[in-house]
Design a protein that fits this description.
Layout: H1 2-9, H2 12-24, E1 26-30, H3 37-45, E2 50-57, E3 61-67, H4 71-79, E4 97-99, H5 105-109, H6 125-133, H7 138-149, H8 153-173, E5 178-182, E6 196-201, H9 205-212, H10 229-247, E7 251-257, E8 264-269, E9 274-280, H11 283-298, H12 300-315, H13 329-341, H14 351-356, E10 365-366, E11 369-370, H15 389-401, E12 408-411, E13 416-419, H16 444-463, H17 466-471, H18 478-481, H19 488-496, H20 503-512, H21 517-524
Parallel strand pairs: 1-4, 6-9
Antiparallel strand pairs: 1-3, 2-3, 5-6, 7-8, 8-9, 10-11, 12-13
Length: 526
């Protein structure tokens, strides 16, 4: 759609600012079970023009209402009562979460209308596999997967609203502060159901810079001083966490994890249904989100390939929702980006190339690290590469199935394999903090499992009889890769070579090195 194209070309900061402002004009309503949509909207419109709205299921039907004017919320709040506290006492915090019930439900029940509910979670993989089996190309299969899993417009609005509701508390102490989402909620690679990572930001830079120069005095606030920034962060998060826990409607299971490398507060936000992590501003994490946003916007194949590889990795147990020695989704995404930089011609530019395109306003040095890169998407030349996703997926598995992990590391700044600076099994350079390996957690067995699964997948894609499988209504292409391979398949590998005389299969085996069981250990440096 045209609207889609327009939103795609805005800079990351423009999109963020717009959505944060939108969230400030938004309320969330728990609706009565017998709902007449027209009546509800009609009533709400008496408080001001409604810019957009949608309904979703979460312990009953809920409506997200975005007003055109912020003062419509105050008008609505004036009309809303405080719950009668018969058996409970209430904390009298007036939020933007309301419950509507019908005054005389019996007479109004007849007027119930069916409302369209926006899905807030993706379909199970089993259902996805059936959908994929009917598609006519792997490329189409990948776009179907992307469409099923990616965040919807409605879900993104809900994420920004969750941040905005936390901000209402932070503001009680720090009136200028902002709460902004980062990571998968905003980098175009989030899937429905992923957590909301948010951070508290105190830097209102613009306002400050203009006023400082005037007048004969150097002026500054008297502020409490603490021995370290970390301590300040811990104190602020501790108090905001207590506040959410004690006074915040719908904030449950609040956990303060203040001794982590990056102190945070974890909580569940029942009204929106999100798991959230709140930390204090981390400029480098924002830059990473923006970099991925840029890559995701440059070419539709980028997101299709990332979503596909992540789903594949999850199905085969290569990634895991709990931290451990598995490859993380972030590492996997960086591997896909690196692979796309290495195509001929490249599908996306290297980070160094994006840095060369940066102008003055794009210059950012954070904690001694140069995090500059171009923010204006129109300055980046579109790729001349016309490869299909079918070819890219197959080549991705082949590329990493034969990558020399023993010797080489993955560097997105240069878009080149460079010698490993240290002996971690998998070494992926942090794009900004150049001395860090983002995949330091990955151990040898996990890397070997990744390589073996990639090889097996390349094999399946190349030997498959697509037409036969489609006639038999069997999963084919991507669908066949999303079914766990099971133990029996290792022995099948040997059998596959029997009775296949064709040269292509033989050269395929050479390239995949499957005919030599030791090659796997060699490639990953056992």
């Amino acid at each position: 759609t045209d609207a889609e194209v327009n939103t795609r070309k805005k800079t990351f900061t423009e999109v963020q600012t717009e959505r944060l402002e939108q969230a400030e004009r938004t309320v969330l309503i728990k609706c009565p079970p017998k709902l007449n949509e027209k009546k509800l909207l009609q009533y709400l419109s008496s408080h001001g023009n409604i810019r957009s709205h949608f309904f979703f299921e979460n312990r009953g039907i809920n409506a997200l209402i975005e007003f055109s004017e912020k003062n419509s919320i105050a008008s609505l709040q004036d009309a809303v009562g405080i719950p009668s506290a018969a058996e409970h006492h209430v904390v009298p915090f007036k939020s933007r979460l309301f419950t509507f019930t019908l005054k005389n439900p019996v007479s109004q029940a007849a007027e119930e209308t069916l409302v369209h509910l926006s899905p807030q979670s993706h379909i199970p993989v089993k259902e996805l596999i059936q959908k994929l089996s009917h598609a006519d190309s792997i490329s189409n299969q990948m776009y179907i997967l992307l469409n099923e899993f990616q965040l919807t417009e409605e879900n993104i609005k809900l994420r920004f609203l969750a941040c905005s509701l936390v901000r209402d508390f932070a503001r009680a102490y720090f009136p200028d502060s902002m709460v902004k989402p980062f990571g998968s909620s905003v980098n175009t690679f989030g899937k429905l159901g992923c957590d909301v990572d948010m951070f508290l930001d105190f830097h209102d830079v613009r306002k400050h810079a203009t006023n400082v120069k005037k007048g004969p005095f150097e002026m500054e606030y008297q502020m409490k001083r603490l021995p370290s920034e970390r301590l300040a962060t811990q104190k602020i998060l501790s108090v905001v966490g207590d506040c959410l826990d004690n006074f915040g409607p719908g904030f449950v299971s609040v956990q303060k994890i203040l001794n982590a490398r990056c102190p945070l507060v974890k909580f569940s936000h029942q009204p929106t249904g999100f798991q959230c992590d709140l930390s204090v501003s981390n400029s480098i994490a924002i830059k990473s989100s923006e970099l991925l946003y840029i890559y995701g916007c440059l070419d539709p194949r980028v997101r299709a390939l990332v979503f596909t590889v992540r789903c594949w990795a999850r199905v085969h147990g290569l990634t895991n929702s709990v931290p451990g020695t598995w490859i993380t989704n972030f590492s996997l995404t960086m591997m896909v980006m690196f692979f796309l930089q290495k195509r001929s011609p490249p599908i996306i530019p290297t980070l160094d190339q994006l840095k060369e395109l940066a102008d003055e306003k794009d210059k950012h040095i954070i904690g001694g690290y140069d995090c500059s890169f171009v923010s204006d998407l129109s300055k980046i030349k579109p790729t001349k590469n016309t490869e299909t996703l079918d070819a890219l997926l197959s080549d991705f598995f082949e590329y990493f199935g034969n990558f020399d992990f023993r010797k080489n590391s993955i560097n997105l700044r240069k878009g080149k394999e460079v010698n490993k600076p240290e002996s971690s099994p998998l070494y992926i350079w942090n794009p900004f903090e150049q001395d860090l390996n983002i995949s330091k957690n990955v151990n040898q067995p996990q890397l070997e499992k990744f390589v073996a699964t990639a090889r097996e997948s390349a094999w399946i894609l190349q030997k498959e009889e697509k037409t036969q499988r489609m006639i038999n209504k069997e999963p084919w292409g991507l669908a066949a890769l999303l079914i766990p391979f099971g133990k029996s398949n290792r022995s099948k590998m040997k059998n596959r070579m029997k009775g296949m005389g064709s040269e292509t299969i033989r050269s395929l085996l050479d390239s995949l090195k499957l005919n030599n069981a030791n090659s796997l250990q060699k490639a990953v440096g056992k």
